[in-house]
Write a structure and sequence with these properties.
Number of strands: 17
Bound molecules: iron/sulfur cluster
Number of domains: 3
CATH topology of the largest domain: TIM Barrel
Strand content: 15-25%
CATH architecture of the largest domain: Alpha-Beta Barrel
Structural class: alpha/beta
Number of helices: 18
Length: 448
């Protein structure tokens, strides 16, 4: 149960009955002016308990329990790869960040002859997006009247991803769990009718268990989760049984609000959403608020936008996506080829690098450390100036690598030209175009 700021304050040193501990009260070592200010931040989950070194042991255990994320972390593992979902602390990304992106799974049936082939294709699919390697996360194997254990075994052999076992029959579930030995699948689902047997299996095989209610019945879902928890299963996933746009959005939002705003532990678990072949519904589940999203089939055209959307939602808004500063060689440049400079904001880097690469023009791209900001933002913030560019030129020993002393700066920072000439005596500073798309033409006509 989460504690209020005042309840937390009563457990901090300023409120202690122990004089030795109390003397540290309001010492500011946590970075806040008073214990009360720190308590308020802890209650809002915007500070870490470890920031105060003077909390007494008995208070610490209460505070740690209170500080536990309102959405439980659930881990599923495959033969080589794993997925963690949950641990979320906010409703909206801009409040802090989302921590664990939802896993996207592709469903296969045990009546499907090519189930292992689908698993192989899912396993192999990856997309390079602004320097990030985006992949799917697993296979959901459905018992549909075929040989469930054999299909689970074949799929397990074909993919390193985790599995979801889709069956409500305890005997079939146990056969699947045996076939999935060595991995930690999610077992779906316990219902009002089978929960005792399914909970027994989940506890015995130490796997997370999804509980399913009908038609978005939140009260029934919470009660079922409590029953399963009482039977010894801690790792629970919620399936409210809502399958269309409106009902799934409503019930997922209600549940997440209850968990995060009301600290309602009974529903403090990740959700599973079934999207069929509807990419828009899958996108809705990713945004609000599924931990597991199951698609009915695999198609790169459907999956690609989902992976990119997910990556954009689940990057930390306080940390720009960056590439490593340094010198990048494009199209095998020689020492006579052009030298350009840009910042280490990923999207800026890829915009410039892709334009030059696709033009076939060889060149050297100096990526300055601008703390992950784009050109104009970094310049305005004083993070992309003549001194930093010169530092990049000298630090990367470009005078020794190149047979010329010319550098092309982005048109948006033409004002740096004079300062850069002072920082790099003997160098010719060329002002390039403002947009990356104009760079190839600039190099063709102006360099030579
Ligand atoms: S570190 Fe912060 S919370 Fe801990 S005693 Fe000092 S002021 Fe209070």
């Amino acid at each position: 149960m989460s504690l209020s700021g005042i309840q937390i304050y009563k457990l901090l040193p300023a409120s202690s009955k122990n004089a030795e501990v109390k003397k540290h009260g309001n010492c500011k070592e946590c970075g806040y002016p008073t214990c009360l200010a720190f308590a308020m931040k802890l209650a809002q989950k915007q500070a870490e308990l470890a920031q105060c070194p003077y909390v007494e042991d008995e208070s610490k255990s209460q505070l740690e329990a209170s500080a536990a994320p309102p959405v439980r972390l659930i881990t599923v593992t495959g033969t080589e790869r794993k997925l963690e979902v949950g641990n979320e602390t906010v409703l909206f990304r801009h409040e802090k960040t989302f921590f664990n992106q939802p896993g996207i799974f592709v469903r296969v049936k045990d009546t499907q002859a090519d189930a292992a082939d689908v698993a192989k294709a899912v396993d192999a699919y990856s997309v390079d997006y602004v320097g990030m390697d985006l992949t799917l996360n697993g296979i959901a194997v459905e018992a549909a009247g075929g040989d469930f254990a054999a299909t689970v075994a074949a799929v397990k052999a074909a993919t390193s991803f985790p599995l979801i076992l889709l069956t409500e029959d305890p005997d079939t579930a146990e056969a699947g769990l045996k076939a999935a030995e060595g991995t930690r699948p999610l077992l779906w689902a316990a219902t009002a009718d089978n929960w005792e047997a399914m909970a027994k299996l989940a506890a015995e095989y130490k796997v997370p268990l999804a509980v399913r209610a009908d038609d978005g019945d939140v009260a029934a879902l919470a009660a079922l989760a409590e029953q399963v928890k009482g039977a010894g299963v801690e790792d629970i996933v919620l399936d409210p049984g809502a399958r269309d746009y409106g009902s799934s959005l409503t019930v997922f939002t209600q549940l997440r609000r209850l968990a995060i705003k009301k600290n309602e532990r009974k529903v403090g678990y990740p959700f599973i959403g079934f999207a069929g072949d509807d990419a828009s519904l899958a996108g809705q589940h990713i945004a609000k608020y599924a931990g597991f999203v199951v698609l009915d089939s695999f198609s790169p055209g459907t999956v690609y936008p989902l992976l990119v959307m997910r990556a954009n939602i689940f990057t930390d808004p306080q940390k720009p996506i960056q590439v490593q500063p340094g010198v990048y060689e494009i199209n095998n440049p020689t020492p006579n080829d052009p030298l350009m400079v840009t910042t280490n904001f990923s999207i800026t880097y890829f915009a410039v690098a892709n334009e030059v690469e696709s033009s076939g023009i060889p060149g050297w791209l100096l990526v300055a450390d601008a703390e992950g900001m784009s050109v104009l933002t970094a310049w305005a913030a004083g993070k992309f100036d003549a001194e930093r560019i010169a530092k990049g030129v000298k630090g990367n020993e470009l005078e020794g690598k190149l047979d010329h002393k010319r550098i092309v700066i982005p048109g948006h920072v033409a004002v740096l030209m004079g300062e850069l000439e002072e920082e790099l005596p003997g160098w010719e500073i060329n002002v390039g175009p403002r947009e990356a798309v104009d760079l190839p033409n600039f190099l063709k006509t102006q360099w030579g």
